[in-house]
Structures are given as C-alpha cells and as structure tokens.
Amino acid sequence: MSQQTTPDAAPADTSLTVDELAARAGVTVRTVRFYSTRGLLPPPAIGPRRVGRYGQEHLSRLALIEELQHQGMTLAAIERYLERLPADLSPHDLAIHRAVVASWVPDTAEEATRAELERRVGRAVSEEDLDRLAAMGVLVRTDDPDVLQVDPGLLALGARLLDVPISLEGIRAARTVMVEHTRSAARELSRLFREEVWEPSREDESGPERVARTKSLSAHMQPLVVQALVTAFQRSMKEELRTWLGEAATRAADADGRPGPS
Prior knowledge:
CATH topology of the domain at 1-105: Multidrug-efflux Transporter Regulator, Chain: A, Domain 2
Strand order of the largest sheet: 3-5-4
CATH architecture of the domain at 1-105: Orthogonal Bundle
Shape: globular
CATH class of the domain at 1-105: Mainly Alpha
Number of strands: 5
Strand content: 5-15%
Order of helices and strands: HHEEHHHEHHEEHHH
Radius of gyration: 22 Å
Distance between the termini: 42 Å
Helix content: 55-70%
C-alpha cells in the first residue's frame, strides 16, 4: 500500500478533512478510519497541526471499495483486488475501474434532498448545475423541487464534470452520441451472442436449460465485454486526440510559417 505522505510532498488536491471526505463519499467517518486501518485507503497527507488531509484519490478509492462490497466481496477479497492495481493508478483510472465494476449491477436510483446532494458533491449546487447533472443522466427532478432521483453510479463522475467548460447543449449532444453508439454496439454484440451461443444450443438443450445456461454465460461475459469496450474506447480516444492535436499543430505552424511536426 502507499506510504505516508509528508507535508512537503502532499499533492495539491489533498484538501478534504476526514469529515468532508466521509460526507462526499456517503459513508461514515468510522468507515473511513476502518478502511484505513485495513490498508484499503492510502494514508492521508499530514497538514498543519498534524491534521490528515484527503483528496480525489481517496474519494475514488472509497467509491470503488463500496462498489466491490455491493458485489458481495469480502474485505479480504477487496484487499487482494486493490493490491493487484498499479500503485500509480490515477483517480480517473480508479473511477473507470469503479464504473466497470458497477456496469453489471441492476439500475438503481436513490432519493436525495438537495442538501444531501450538495454534501455528496462537496459544493453548493445551482439550478444550472442541476440542469447539467440531469443532462448527464446523473439525476432526475421530481415534482418536489427539493427531492431528486440520483444515480449513485454516475454521481461522482458527474460532480467532477460540473466545472468542465462545456455547454449544456454540448453535454446533451455528447450523451446522445454515447447512448446511440453504445446501443448500437450492444445490439450487434447481442446478435453475435445469439448466433454463436443461443441458436447452436437449440438442438442440444431444452428451453429452460438453454435459458439458464445463457443467463449464466451472459452474467460472466458482461463485465469482460464492458472492460473490453472501455479499453477500446480509451485507445480510440487517444488516437483521435493525437490526430486532432497533430493537425492543429500543423495548421498553427503553417500560419506562422514554421515547420510542422514530423
């Protein structure tokens, strides 16, 4: 596990007290301390007056631990899982791990007041923020303006995107693209699954046996497929950014009369 961080080496984002960390993560302070004693959380940075300070890495790791527990994993199993992760894994990568773990959990929404949402987000939430979170699919407004239906699986990621300089229309357009393309991928993968697994077993198994086997196989395959999709998307996105930035650099160099990147 990570070693104690000295004040001089404290990362810039370690700005949360243990109480603030617990509120943001939706757990108790006792839970945070318990996870820390088990080595599931890195030690805090030690700030002035020997006060422990926590950051985004702790938040992301707490979310991952909670998700693994929801999957029925014991603390010993979670400890082994975390030990296999690279030591330099960023909060962003931890969030991806958490999203993959949560990807085969049934869709659930939690009712939360606006005050509860603000405690989880760690900031005051404006009407514009609520609109942005709704556009991301993080929450749904109800008839009661103080009560919201919140998707806990998306809340942490949505909160981090609130300060990203993208318009509400841009968020909606991006979500439309993701929904359409993920549905298309799911449709094609389901077709392949049906042709490769469902149809060939028609003559060998009875209907109930085939349904049971297919459900079992699907449950085992879904997280693997999601991980493969995430990995493929990350690589594709990096390639797109590399191409785009290269083209932008070339245009800038042409405008200045300088040689562009080779």
